[in-house]
């Protein structure tokens, strides 16, 4: 672990304007090192998703500075931002967001149709299969989402996030729709990706079991960092 891969300073974020203005993040300062695993916890509405969207370059309408992989999010053009997201970030959501009429590998390969993909046409299917094998879905490469379990759907979504070999995985309640055993398997996979593949993992969670397994846990409350807990003992 060396230089911070994410440097957030004095980030303030509001939605709306005038009387309807609602400030949801206040003076957030946070550095995350390359290779770290970090959880973000806090009650509903505390600003977790808003913060993750800023880190991932999905939202540039904030004050302050957010530097990811030495790039200032707020200074990038739309084109640069889209390329940055493609090259640096993998997103995983609670609701999987898979296309039902596409097979697992087609869902994974879909991002290659968008600009900024590093992988050439001939290699797209090969790479999709490779990442599906990485998440142990060797036998579901040609399956359609309705024929997959929740855990398998989330693995397809994780494979999709891995397709472009990201430096950072941003996960918004990735186990929120899974039963506890399946959720545990998905969390073990994130742990593996963090330790073996050296991917920086940031995960929003409501589950203590998940937050206790990360190197640091950031607690947000009413748009402010209330506490930062560092892991002291290995989690069973
Ligand atoms: N697009 C939006 N427009 C206006 N207000 C928004 C928007 N997105 C979020 N908010 C508001 O910002 C605040 C923080 O929302 P955010 O989604 O970041 O919370 P959260 O911590 O992720 O909550 P949850 O645990 O329920 O997902 C909330 O008060 C929410 O109503
Ligand atoms: Mg949220």
General description of the model:
The protein has 236 residues and is of the alpha/beta class. The protein has one domain (35-57, 78-230): 3-Layer(aba) Sandwich (Rossmann fold), CATH 3.40.50.300. It has seven helices and ten strands. A hairpin with a 6-residue loop joins β1 and β2. The structure holds adenosine-5'-triphosphate and magnesium ion.
Features:
single chain, 236 residues, alpha/beta, Rossmann fold, 6-stranded mixed β-sheet, binds adenosine-5'-triphosphate, binds magnesium ion
Counting structural domains, the number is 1
Biggest sheet descriptor: 6 strands, mixed
Bound molecules: adenosine-5'-triphosphate, magnesium ion
CATH homologous group name: P-loop containing nucleotide triphosphate hydrolases
Which strands sit side by side, in order, in the main sheet?
A: 6-7-8-3-9-10
Question: The CATH topology is what?
Answer: Rossmann fold
- Beta percentage is 25-35%
Question: In CATH terms, what is the architecture?
Answer: 3-Layer(aba) Sandwich
Poorly predicted spans = none
| Class of secondary structure makeup | alpha/beta
Radius of gyration: 18 Å
Secondary structure: helix percent = 25-40%
* End-to-end distance: 23 Å
Query: What is the count of β-strands?
Result: 10
